[in-house]
Write a structure and sequence with these properties.
By secondary structure, the protein is α+β, with helices and mostly antiparallel strands. It contains 5 helices and 7 strands, in the order H-H-H-E-E-H-E-E-E-E-E-H. The termini are far apart.
């Protein structure tokens, strides 16, 4: 019998394989000044063959803002009415998204563990990433994000991980 972790990993692997079969590719590049926090141990400056210029630019800005731990810069990437879905909870608009990222930066603080973001897949207006956060003294916890970009802004983001069940997520969702 497969565990929940196995099912999540297999689902993510299938999604990556499907995206790559559509022609996505990525080459990791380390930030010139190196990672600053657990949140910043990620890939940046990537170029994917079938990404729109807008999607690639938004992604590059978003991952830099994530690496820098800047809620202000992250929120600039979202449309005014953007929807972020985290483990089935909906957060709408820049104010709630800012609150979500404030909490995410607390969770992903380097004092809590190490986060590794795998190379992303960018296809047209979609960005897909997988990541593993390893809390101090514990096993890695898998997660995945998907971003939809329209009109030079992120309009929808989904985040899924058992990490947010382990570490209570305290931002109030949309009613």
């Amino acid at each position: 019998m497969a565990t929940k972790k196995t099912v999540v990993c297999l689902t993510a692997a299938l999604a990556v394989a499907a995206a790559l079969s559509l022609g996505g590719n990525a080459v990791a590049q380390t930030p010139p000044d190196g990672p600053k926090t657990a949140a910043s141990q990620s890939v940046t400056g990537l170029k994917n063959a079938d990404a729109t210029e807008s999607t690639q630019a938004i992604w590059n800005n978003h991952i830099k803002a994530w690496s820098d731990g800047s809620v202000k810069e992250i929120v600039k990437d979202y449309s005014d009415d953007a929807l972020l879905i985290l483990n089935g909870q909906q957060y709408k608009g820049k104010k709630q998204i800012a609150a979500v990222f404030t909490r995410l930066f607390e969770i992903f603080d380097e004092r809590n563990g190490v986060n590794k973001i795998d190379p992303e897949v960018v296809s047209n207006e979609t960005v897909y990433i997988t990541w593993n956060f390893t809390p101090r003294g514990k096993e890695p916890i898998f997660g995945t994000d998907t971003f939809q970009v329209k009109n030079d802004r992120i309009t929808v983001q989904t985040i899924g991980s058992f990490l947010y069940k382990e570490r209570k997520f305290t931002v109030d969702p949309v009613d």
